[in-house]
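Hi Y.,

Following your request, here is the sequence exactly as I used it, all 510 residues.
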Amino acid sequence: MIISYCVNPSCSQPKNHPKLKKCNTCGSSLILNNRYRVIKMLGKGGFGATFVGVDLTVVGDPLCVVKQLRPMADDPQALKTAISLFEREAKTLGKISHPQIPKLMNYFADQGQFYLIQELINGQNLQREVKTQGVYGEIALRRFLEEITPILKYLHSEKVIHRDIKPANILRQKKDGKLVLIDFGAVKDQVNTQLAKTFGQTALTKFSVGTMGYAPPEQLAMRPIYSSDIYALGATCVYLITGKSPKNFNIDPDTGQLLWQEDINISGGLVKVINKMLAQDTRERYKSIDELIEALNIQPFQQSLSQNIVGNQISSNNTIDLSQLEVHGTDDNITQVTKTISTTEKIQKAIQQRRMNKSSKNLSIKWDEEKFFTAFNNGKKDFSDQDLQGLNLQGSKLNKCIFRYSQLQGITFADANLSQGNFYSADLNSANLSNVNAFQGYFSKSNLENVDFKGANLGSADFTNANLSNANLCGANLKNAKINQQQLKEAKINWNTIFPDGSRRWWKVF
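Below is the corresponding structure, written out as tokens. Let me know if you'd prefer a different format.
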């Protein structure tokens, strides 16, 4: 049931009837800034709280995120200073425009409390993802870093330090699987830092300066720099591959370095990169996101180009077989070698395209049924970027498993439970998914050519931009599925197919 939620921190009974304008318990206004009605609390901390709200001035009352900030100051002059700082920082955030950062839609102050109104993102945070689906392997971690670092690079180019990077502040959007960076600490940290400098340090321990375990020493001392975000990103990587908060690890008593490397299965090169991200001394840490991106591009490939490309990949007519191209060494080496063999723009693009996949070929596990079920029974649910072609997983209970970008050609999932599974951009050509339960399955951009979905439960599944050429949907249940007419025309259907509207009028497709 929808309610109207009172945002007064001291209100003992904040839930109200959705039509009320004043709180029944404390009398506070339930309409913020004459525009926003809060309907649900998402969470709260020392600095404030986060709610879901509706914008009453827009047709359809669209949902939004309402962030309430409460600076640690009682002095009237301090509050005046805080309001000024809040507005300045909010204006800075308002200039940020990136598809993987929620839009700041409004900001205002009301009775000593400040509010940010942001775009609502439908997705699950990475902390929750790890708890429900298991820790990341090396390939999944690399893909995470490849996607998150450009977001941070953009942010720093706009002279903004996030200040609170952690798994709980990174969402994976439900609609497309992309990462979204949320909950900037910039506003609250700038406000509290200035208040501490101006009005004294007596309440400093109460001030929000990031999250313990993820915030580096200089940020805890209220002197964050751009590489503070790099430290927090390294700490986030530690959580993703271990499932443990960085604050739960021991530290080296001599250097202060986090001792997190035991019982992990990633390459030494990547361990070295993460350790540099986590350097206590800022002089030892990566100074910029560009430095980190460069290190991530070169670190797994230690052999020289002259030994691994020039000797083996150049044919007698001075051309390169793009399907066999492997890249080793630094980007500068790649540029130098490819220039000497008359590299075309197409080859350069191929190198860029394949850079994301080159570690997969060297590090991917050779899966069989026994290895798969051993990993699954030990809690692994993320099989992204894996080669599982031809495996027989018939009748398995694999609900909520992740197979993003995986090679699943010819795999047998018949009679399996794949409900809420994520197959984003996976290749399932000629796979057997007959009679599977794939309710709310996510097949966006996947290759489903020749897949046997006969008798499958595909209710509420998402087939946005998926290739369903010659897929067998005879007898499948597609009720409420996201699938268009063209996809249905390309697939096989019959009188027993249940369509998105719940009907069996298959002839209407044609």
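Residues 336 and 363 are 27 Å apart (CA to CA).

Thanks again,
Q.
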